[in-house]
Design goal:
Elements (H helix, E strand, L loop, with lengths): L17 H13 L6 E2 L6 E2 L7 H12 L5 H28 L2 H13 L3 H4 L1 H6 L7 H9 L2 H22 L3 H15 L3 H18 L3 H4 L3 H15 L5 H14 L7 H24 L4 H23 L11 H20 L4 H27 L14 H11 L5 E3 L2 H10 L17 H11 L8 H11 L2 E7 L21 E6 L2 E5 L6 E4 L12 H12 L8 E4 L4 E8 L4 E7 L4 E5 L2 E2 L1 E4 L4 E5 L3 E10 L3 H31 L1
Parallel strand pairs: 3-4
Antiparallel strand pairs: 1-2, 4-6, 5-6, 7-10, 8-9, 9-15, 10-14, 11-12, 11-15, 13-14
Helix pairs in contact: 1-2, 1-3, 1-19, 2-3, 3-4, 3-8, 4-16, 8-9, 8-10, 8-12, 9-12, 10-15, 12-23, 14-15, 15-16, 16-17, 18-19, 20-21, 21-22
Length: about 650
């Protein structure tokens, strides 16, 4: 039934962000060093900040061992495999807590075919269109939510492992819980927060029940701490900080204000009240309590978003996947409780609603099984406008960057190593100014009427852009996000036009320029027009010597040319403390300018060669050491615990 999801090609839904994940995978498969540098996206960024690594490193071996397999196909194979395994993880979850194969099988089968949110939330029902897929598959096909799908499949076994670690002694259970939690966290940020919220519901369930269940909250906390130690090589404090500050901006400018505080307070109060009620009337139904609390928690987040348009937490609508799963688990748990009752009326009252839900949901399930898959089959990439534009750009071998927008920026590096201003995941960025500039280029924000095009050109020159792609109203590209698509007419050389897509060329010489310190760009967002204009005039001054930049791989580059006294080098590559630079064997200072690019302070020379290399930051190396010690200690602890058992016996 899910065979089309394993096929190669481009998804038929042009709004899918799958190409962005495939772009990351393609780069990581070619350059797996986690302390490397990606020069192709966001004006350069560390490999470790591209995205959470698990899905990419699981899919990369497919590109190594299968000749001709493209990145999108490899990514799709891995994410679809986990989507197919999700009902198995639900079976495992229910089987562990209920000790019943039949109840577990029923829950897993229902999860496979039914999506209760279609009947509960009208917006979700409308969103499926005429492609009848369960919602967890619909978000994979339509929106490209691959990593979230993988995290969702890992969530139930992770919760089982964490509960087992809290309820039973032994280091082995603690280590398994930590490894599963780390796996979810290294998959997707939404899944990581979903795990955190689920564990909160678990701890609320276990509160005050240590005597009855033996559950120790301290062991769950210890498992969480060990999980971070095991994953610290990637989950560095800087990465976590970037996500914490950037995610709220990227999720439609989420902000914690009075409505959010009120909603969070109401959610917590409702959870506590429900826990007290269940503790009073059903004190031994631990599993039922857990899944019911989790259902209420995710239901609150999702229903408030869809009913009132207010986010309780960032991107609240994305937790519909977790809500759907826990809603189904809760329904089964209550149905199971009713069927165990000795009261025939109670059992009848449970069978009636269950039969109604089965009958109302059966048409969707039958349609999913029997309907043609043609509408959600991938299409050949050659048929897409994004591939045609990307191929045309690649044939020109641009030395500068491309200002791509919409779906093209997601897919561009899925096929070609073309440097661009944008990319696919900006929440991990430490330098967001180029991203903010790109937004102003597309929207004209901050420019006087009629000046949008001229100001956009100044900004693009300061970013090292050589080609800009504009999708007009007639374009077949899904995201046509230029507010003034004709703003460059008469200002730039038009080098390509097909239907509603136009490519313009911007004069470009190099990514490295000699400038005086007082000509460096001023602070962005404060009088940026005159400040950037002065900088752009300086880098375009033909009376100043030109510098050549040569990339030697992805983490090393060389700058060659004469260095005039009183000048610094403005290198249009994002600053990061992991970069080093040497001139004639001596280290030279690297600073950060107001665009977030590097400023080098070389010595004057008639002919200089400056060699730069990215080796990762001290923090990255320190956290890698912490992870290595944590893994070594965990293996040693596991060995000791195994030897201790026979001695105890």
């Amino acid at each position: 039934m899910n065979s089309p999801l394993f096929m190669g090609g481009d998804p038929p839904y042009r709004g899918s962000i799958e190409g962005g994940y495939a772009s990351m995978l393609r780069f990581i498969a070619a350059h797996p060093n986690p302390w490397g540098w990606n020069p192709a996206q966001y004006c350069g960024m560390p490999t470790a900040l591209i995205y959470l690594p698990l899905v990419h490193y699981l899919a990369a071996p497919l590109l190594w061992i299968v000749p001709g397999l493209d990145a999108a196909h490899a990514h799709r194979i891995v994410t679809t495999a986990f989507a197919c395994l999700a009902p198995v993880s639900v079976f495992f979850f229910v089987r562990y807590f209920t000790r019943s194969r039949w109840w577990a099988f029923g829950a897993a089968l229902s999860y496979t075919f039914f999506s209760p949110l279609y009947g509960l939330i009208e917006a979700i029902s409308r969103d499926r269109g005429d492609v009848y897929l369960p919602w967890r598959l619909q978000v994979l096909v339509k929106y490209g939510e691959g990593p979230h799908t993988v995290g969702l499949a890992l969530l139930p076994p992770a919760l089982v492992a964490i509960w087992s670690a809290g309820a039973s002694p032994g280091f082995r259970r603690l280590l398994i819980a930590a490894m599963m939690a780390a796996a979810v966290a290294l998959t997707n940020w939404v899944a990581a927060l979903a795990l955190t919220l689920s564990v909160a519901a678990m701890l609320l369930t276990a509160a005050g029940m240590r005597k009855e269940s033996g559950f120790r909250i301290s062991r769950v906390i210890a498992a969480g701490a060990l999980a971070w130690l095991l994953a610290a090589f990637w989950m560095t404090p800087a990465f976590i900080r970037n996500i914490a500050f950037n995610w709220t901006t990227d999720s439609l400018n989420f902000d914690l204000r009075t409505p959010q505080y009120a909603l969070l307070g109401g959610c917590v109060a409702s959870l506590v009240l429900l826990r007290l009620i269940l503790l009073r009337y059903l004190p031994r139904e631990t599993y039922l309590c857990f899944v019911t609390l989790a259902c209420l928690l995710f239901g609150w987040i999702v229903q408030v978003r869809y009913s009132y348009g207010i986010d309780t937490i960032p991107e609240s609508h994305r937790y519909a996947l977790e809500f759907s799963m826990f809603l189904l688990l809760a329904l089964f748990a209550w149905f199971r409780l009713a069927m165990r009752s000795g009261n025939g009326v109670t059992r009848f009252c449970a069978i009636g609603p269950a039969a109604v839900m089965l009958i109302t949901g059966a048409p969707d399930a039958l349609t999913y099984v029997s309907r043609s898959h043609e509408k959600w089959k991938p299409v050949p990439k050659e048929q897409t406008v994004e591939y045609r534009l990307a191929r045309w750009l690649d044939e020109r071998h641009p030395a500068g960057r491309v200002m791509a927008s919409g779906g093209l920026r997601y897919r561009l590096n899925m096929w070609f190593d073309i440097p661009q201003v944008g990319g696919a995941f900006e929440s991990g960025l430490s330098n967001r100014i180029p991203h903010q500039m790109a937004f102003r280029v597309r929207t004209g924000t901050g420019s006087a009427p009629g000046e949008e095009g001229r100001n956009a050109i100044v900004m693009m020159k300061s970013l090292g852009v050589e080609y800009v792609v504009v999708h007009g109203p007639a374009s077949k590209e899904h995201y046509r996000d230029y507010k003034h698509p004709a703003e460059f007419e008469g200002l730039l050389e038009q080098v390509y036009r097909e239907e509603g897509d136009v490519i313009y060329r911007i004069p470009f010489t190099s990514l490295a320029h000699l400038v005086r310190p007082d000509q460096l760009p001023g602070e962005f967002l404060r009088g940026y027009e005159p400040e950037l204009a002065r900088y752009v005039a300086a880098i375009g001054d033909n009376s100043v010597a030109r510098l050549r930049v040569e990339w030697q791989g992805t983490r090393s580059l060389a700058i060659e040319g004469p260095i005039q006294a009183g000048h610094v080098i403005s290198l249009q590559v994002s600053f990061d403390p992991g970069w080093t630079a040497t001139q004639a064997g001596h280290s030279i200072r690297i600073d950060r300018d107001n665009i977030g690019f590097m400023v080098l302070h070389p010595a004057p020379a008639s002919s200089a060669r400056i060699e730069m290399r990215y080796n990762g930051t001290r923090e990255q190396h320190l956290t890698a050491l912490i992870s290595a010690l944590a893994w070594a200690g965990s293996i040693a602890g596991l060995s000791v615990s195994r030897r201790a058992k026979p001695e105890a016996a």
